[in-house]
Design goal:
The protein is α/β, with parallel strands linked by helices. The protein is 32% helix and 20% strand. The chain contains nine helices and nine strands. The chain has helices at residues 23-31, 54-59, 76-91, 107-115, 130-134, 162-165, 174-187, 196-206, 220-226, and strands at 8-14, 35-43, 63-66, 96-100, 119-124, 138-141, 194-195, 231-237, 244-250.
Length: 252
């Protein structure tokens, strides 16, 4: 089985529903999951509303696909993306898809691609409807891509105003704590310890848009370590590889 970073991905971008301001950050994020062997962006390039994308296309070798709006008020771009996605699927040249859009119209496409064994990554704004989010294996919010880690309020520091961080953090509330605890319990050994990497993978399956950055942390380990009242963390060394692995356990 090939390493995840070697998977060939088809990146399909909806120019009508995604801002162009962080295209490099989006492509860097996609590179964590595989090789973007196909990169296409769809829109009506005769309109000024998508003009901001044009300088990025040559710089990042993204192929623009022209799609005229046949009827006022109807988005023909969606249909073009869906048709191309199915053509690519049946060509058997890729291992997964990255659908860059905030439009719920791609929900059924994401479901269909996953039914065919494809990994599906979604990238969109926080306004993206939940049905599209949960239809993906992984969903990443554009707002957190390439953004500096926003500081959370602690005993020693004060919270940074939202206007300064430009990121609205998700709350670490009782519902989220319950998700963390149930995920640890699901894979914990007899002593209650669970490998943090496995915990993170399980949470992503339960909540495709989970990302520590949504809560103000660059890594899951930093998020868990900040919850000292709920969890305890330990590092254990693998006897064979001598590599250190992080484990977590619910505090009693």
């Amino acid at each position: 089985m090939r390493d995840k970073s070697e998977l060939n991905l088809a990146v399909l971008i909806d120019a009508d529903n995604i801002p162009y301001s962080n295209i490099k950050g989006m492509l860097d994020e996609i590179a964590k999951f595989g090789i973007p062997s196909i990169k296409r962006i769809y829109g009506d390039w005769t309109k000024n509303t998508v003009a901001g994308w044009k300088p990025a296309l040559l710089e990042h070798a993204i192929t623009p696909v022209q799609q005229y709006s046949y009827t006022t008020g109807k988005n023909a771009t969606d249909s073009a993306m869906i048709i191309d996605a199915m053509d690519i699927l049946h060509s058997q040249k890729v291992d997964g898809f990255c659908i860059v859009s905030s439009d719920s119209d791609f929900t059924r496409l994401a479901i269909r691609l996953r039914e065919s064994g494809m990994m599906v990554i979604g990238i969109g704004e926080k306004k993206t409807p939940n049905p599209f989010i949960v239809a993906c294996d992984k969903f990443i919010y554009i707002e957190i891509i390439g953004a500096p880690e926003p500081p959370r309020k602690t005993a020693k520091t004060t919270a940074t105003p939202a206007a300064e961080t430009k990121i609205k953090l998700d709350p670490i509330d009782a519902k989220f704590i319950k998700l963390l605890k149930s995920s640890v319990e699901d894979i914990a050994d007899d002593d209650g310890w669970a490998a943090l990497s496995a915990v993170g993978a399980l949470i992503n399956k339960k909540k495709p848009d989970f990302d520590p950055r949504n809560y103000g942390f660059q890594k899951l380990s930093l998020l868990i370590k900040s919850l000292k009242k709920q969890f305890e963390v330990a590092e254990k060394e693998d006897d064979k590889s001598r590599a250190k692995h992080v484990y977590v356990r619910i505090k009693k």
